[in-house]
Amino acid sequence: MQAAIAEPRLGKALRGWTSAQGRSLLGACIAHTLHDGYTDLLYVLLPLWQTEFGLSYSGLAAVRCLYSGTMGGLQIPGDRLIRPLGSRVALVCATVVAASGFLTMALSHSFTGLCVGLVLAGVGSSVQHPRGSVLVTQAYGSAARAPLGIYNFAGDLGKAIFPALVALLVTTMAWRPAVGLMALIGLLVALALLPVLPRQAYEAPAEERHRARTGGGSGFALLLMVGALDTATRMGYLLFLPFLLHAKGGGQASVGFGLAALFIGGALGKAACGWLGGRLGVVWSVIATEAVTACLIIASLPLSLGPTMVLLPLLGIVLNGTSSVLYGTVPELAPKGDSGRAFAIFYTGVIGSGALAPIAYGALADHAGQTVGVIAAGLTALATVPMILGLRHRLGGTSG
User: Fold this and answer.
1) In this structure, is the dihedral angle defined by the CA atoms of residues 160, 317, 152 and 95, taken in order, positive or negative?
2) Residue ranges of domains in the chain
3) Residue 301: is it exposed, middle or buried by C-beta count within 10 angstroms (0-12/13-18/19+)?
4) pLDDT tens for each residue of 6-48
5) ∠ CA 270-274-275 to the nearest 5 degrees?
6) CB 198 within 8 A of CB 284
7) Which CATH superfamily includes the segment(s) 20-398?
8) Closest Cα partner for 323 from 237, 231, 398?
9) Phi, psi at residue 258, to the nearest 5°?
């Protein structure tokens, strides 16, 4: 009897993923896994680049900004330029360009080549977030909050897998061949997206699309500011984490596993924060996670390597989990109901913050020490509290 019941359920689940709607979500998730993995594997390479090119903390942040700044700055123009091609072609082309950037880094033996590769990879990744998010939002309409959570969860899987993989690779080979393998994976993913993504993007029924676009847009600016500060905290801490682990006696493998532990916690945080948001509402769940984030970041400073590695998954839950609550709220507060432009603006703000904030934290650390830089990143999380409180009356039933 149980097998008879389970079989139709399994068939229904499989049909869901093979439908045009399910394939839209699956393709967006595959692209998000790769591109977020590309973004965060760079943290494993920072200490190697510091040694090879003699860079300071702020110099490292500026080099990484070539990728994240390009990715953030081109969100709106890149999305507008490639939108007529359709999401399928846009995501495939963007993935090829991003992989080409990593291939350029792998083949070049100069600092200039590294910088060119980072910019090229950033150009490719600039398209993925708005096109992937809109693909999911169009497919699910007013029911898009949960699928967007799955989409964001897929990104955290990439953040967990790729840094750990690169950390293992660089223990057996130089960083350039390891980056070359990442480029090859990107090209294979681009090929895989062609049969997965539907040729014609699936759109939810008109009634569902209408309901998804009736939310007010007056709180969007506040949501964007909260997202920017949340990202500044996360990227600031990630800048220092490899050096923090090295200072505690950890090697390159420890850095990779530490980052993986943080991002695995972040992936769990997508589900945990979704559960928390359903009970406390968007506002109070964000306040809770940001407060715990600040406490755990500061607590990681005096701990030895072992306890720090235990703390990192817990920190990841709140450090990364908050973002899924914020991203899921974008369609609700999209100005004029244009979720595509809203996502492009939102990602421009948060990625731009993620690119620029570490430079400020790095400059602070260069002058006042690494500990001060880490504390500054942690305290930034608390700056979101008065802003998120301003959204209480704009989110209606989801505010808590």
Assistant:
1) negative
2) 20-398
3) middle
4) 444 434 444 455 677 788 899 999 999 999 999 889 988 988 9
5) 120
6) no
7) MFS general substrate transporter like domains (1.20.1250.20)
8) 231
9) -65, -45
